[in-house]
């Protein structure tokens, strides 16, 4: 029987040493991601969102943790973890001196995929890149480069896709198209782990949200659960019927940060 839990993170710690001084960025992060879910991790700049993504993608070693992804132990079975995930970072990782098709072919050959030609054609069609497939990527718009980048990450048909602030630098139209792509991937049964600084983006896409602050998860739940929890506070009054995700975020992060200054 396939487990409903696809990512399980327990007591994640990460420290960095700068000028011989140790700084603890993550101080015991714990959360669970369900299969087929769009899970959004929110936090201010420097909160540690990208650090968590890099750890889960096996790019950075944690200081201490218990993490399982698709049932594989992150520390003991990193190669198995890499087989079931893909990562799309803040900026498109494409070779601009190659065509779109050549970029996908390069990744397929690097990953030793068999019978990949049809897979490439299907992805080009899915992301509306077929007409531009034989053009150099340096001629692409920012949105087209981002779509090519995502198509490259999907070649191996991963179970989990990490999106680390994927709409950074995109124009509004390209941003909305990427939202549609994420919704399509979810409908195909993919699990999406999304970090973003755009609260309306999380509100539009996420099934479940966790807020990272001070090195720990300070608030989590579905969008409706988070909104209801804030609305139910007797000390808070809203002119509108229901608070927004921004209201929730500010209540647990921004005000706290303001008190520290």
Helices and strands, with pairings:
Blueprint: E1 5-18, E2 21-34, E3 38-42, H1 49-56, E4 64-69, E5 72-73, H2 78-83, E6 85-88, H3 100-110, H4 117-126, H5 142-153, E7 160-164, H6 172-187, E8 191-195, H7 199-205, E9 208-213, E10 216-221, H8 223-231, H9 245-260
Parallel strand pairs: 3-8, 3-9, 6-7, 7-8
Antiparallel strand pairs: 1-2, 1-4, 4-5, 9-10
Helix pairs in contact: 3-5, 5-6, 8-9
How would you sum up this structure in a few lines?
The protein contains 9 helices and 10 strands. The longest helix has 16 residues, at 172-187. Helix 3 (100-110) runs parallel beside helix 5, helix 5 packs parallel to helix 6 and helix 8 crosses helix 9.
In CATH, what is the class?
A: Alpha Beta
CATH evolutionary superfamily: P-loop containing nucleotide triphosphate hydrolases
Class from helix and strand fractions: alpha/beta
- What is the name of the CATH architecture? 3-Layer(aba) Sandwich
Mean pLDDT: 88
So what's the overall shape? globular
What is the end-to-end distance?
50 Å
Uncertain regions spanning at least 5 consecutive residues: 257-261
Q: What strand line-up does the widest sheet have?
A: 6-7-8-3-9-10
Encode the helix/strand succession as letters: EEEHEEHEHHHEHEHEEHH
């Amino acid at each position: 029987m396939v487990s409903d839990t696809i990512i399980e993170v327990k007591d994640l710690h990460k420290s960095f040493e700068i000028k011989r001084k140790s700084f603890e960025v993550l101080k015991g992060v714990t959360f669970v991601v369900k299969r087929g879910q769009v899970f959004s991790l929110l936090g201010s700049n420097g909160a540690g969102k990208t650090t968590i993504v890099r750890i889960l993608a096996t790019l950075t070693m944690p200081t201490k943790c218990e993490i399982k992804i698709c049932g594989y132990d992150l520390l003991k079975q990193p190669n198995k973890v890499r087989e079931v995930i893909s990562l799309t970072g803040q900026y498109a990782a494409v070779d601009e001196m190659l065509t779109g098709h050549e970029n996908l072919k390069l990744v397929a050959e690097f990953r030793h995929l068999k019978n990949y030609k049809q897979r490439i054609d299907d992805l080009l069609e899915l992301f509306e890149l077929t007409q531009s497939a034989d053009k150099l990527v340096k001629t692409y718009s920012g949105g087209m480069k981002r779509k090519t980048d995502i198509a490259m990450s999907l070649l191996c048909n991963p179970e989990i896709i990490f999106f680390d602030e994927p709409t950074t630098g995109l124009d509004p139209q390209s941003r909305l198209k990427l939202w549609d792509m994420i919704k399509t991937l979810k409908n195909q049964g993919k699990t999406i782990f999304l970090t973003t600084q755009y609260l309306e983006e999380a509100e539009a896409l996420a099934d479940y949200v966790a807020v990272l602050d001070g090195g720990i998860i300070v608030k989590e739940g579905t969008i409706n659960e988070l909104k209801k929890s804030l609305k139910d506070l007797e000390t808070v009054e809203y002119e509108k019927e229901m608070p927004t995700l921004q209201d929730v975020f500010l209540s647990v992060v921004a005000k706290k940060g303001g008190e520290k200054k």
